[in-house]
Specification:
The protein has helices spanning 25-38, 55-61, 79-83, 102-110, 151-156, 165-171, 186-190, 210-217; strands spanning 48-52, 69-74, 90-94, 97-98, 117-124, 127-134, 158-162, 177-182, 198-202, 205-206, 223-229, 235-241. The chain is of the alpha+beta class. It has two domains: 43-134, PDZ domain (Pdz3 Domain), CATH 2.30.42; 151-241, Pdz3 Domain (Roll), CATH 2.30.42.10. The protein is elongated and about 65 Å long. The chain starts with 24 loop residues before the first helix and ends with a strand.
Length: 244
């Protein structure tokens, strides 16, 4: 049962651009569905930095005022970039819905997932152009990012992902598991491991994917030896204890 949604705004200027105190119900529905199905929220991203168009911005950029959302920058290889969108485009609609402000654009995109395609109309130099954009995830791909619900991973204090095949080929390894994020936990406390380390063996056992990590470490006690490489090819060993 949904009891309530608390939101807060911290501002040093006294103004704020965003959802304000209202959380749209369609966003809530999507968040709940994502959490139930994937374990975390699947965020589709255009890959642009934006500003709401107004007369002052039009004067600053020396363009005719058009109600919409100004694209300040386009991320390299983002969905927007691959579709052909450019800095200076003014987004006027997404899937036929007007985007007069940045919060409206953000709300529409927030209801989408990686891999979803959206039809975006922009004003470029006074003429309208239409683009079909495939939204990316936070890692630049279009796959859903699934959160592993392994208790041992929480104890380690790390997020893992299966190593990319191209990277594995480059490093001449059959596979492995990349430490994509480190949090307070066993690894950070007891080793000097850096994010990006690729685990190839645990206690001498070959590691090909995330399930292998869980299988080896679940219910394990005592010392653990991780063997692997970084993307620059340097090989490292890290040891820590799993006793509670």
């Amino acid at each position: 049962n949904l009891v309530g949604i608390n939101t807060a705004i911290a501002s040093t200027t006294g103004t704020y651009t965003g959802y304000g105190f209202a959380v749209p119900s369609n966003i809530v529905t999507k968040v709940v569905e994502d959490l139930l199905k994937f374990g975390n929220v699947q965020r589709g991203m255009l890959g642009v930095t934006i500003r709401t168009m107004d007369s002052n911005l039009a004067k600053e950029k020396d363009v005719d005022f058009t109600k919409g959302v100004w694209i300040e920058q386009v991320g390299e290889d983002s969905g927007a970039d691959l579709a052909g969108m450019e800095s200076g485009d003014i987004i006027v609609s997404v899937n036929g819905k007007e985007t007069a402000t940045s919060p409206r654009l953000q709300e529409i995109i927030a209801g989408k997932r990686p891999g979803d395609k959206v039809t975006i109309v922009v004003n470029r130099n006074g003429k309208e152009k239409e683009f079909e954009v495939e939204l990316h995830n936070s890692q630049g791909g279009t796959n859903f990012i699934k959160k592993e619900k392994k208790e041992v991973f929480n104890l380690l204090g790390a997020d893992f992902e299966n190593v990319d095949k191209e990277i594995a080929k480059k490093l001449k390894i059959n596979g492995g598991v990349k430490v994509s994020k480190l949090y307070p936990g066993k690894i950070k406390k007891e080793t000097q491991m850096r994010e990006g380390f690729i685990i190839t063996h645990i206690d001498g056992k070959r590691i090909n994917d995330i399930e292998d990590v869980a299988d080896v470490l679940e219910n394990k006690k005592g010392g653990v030896m991780l063997e692997g490489v970084y993307e620059d090819g340097s090989k490292y060993y890290y040891a820590f204890g799993l006793d509670s």
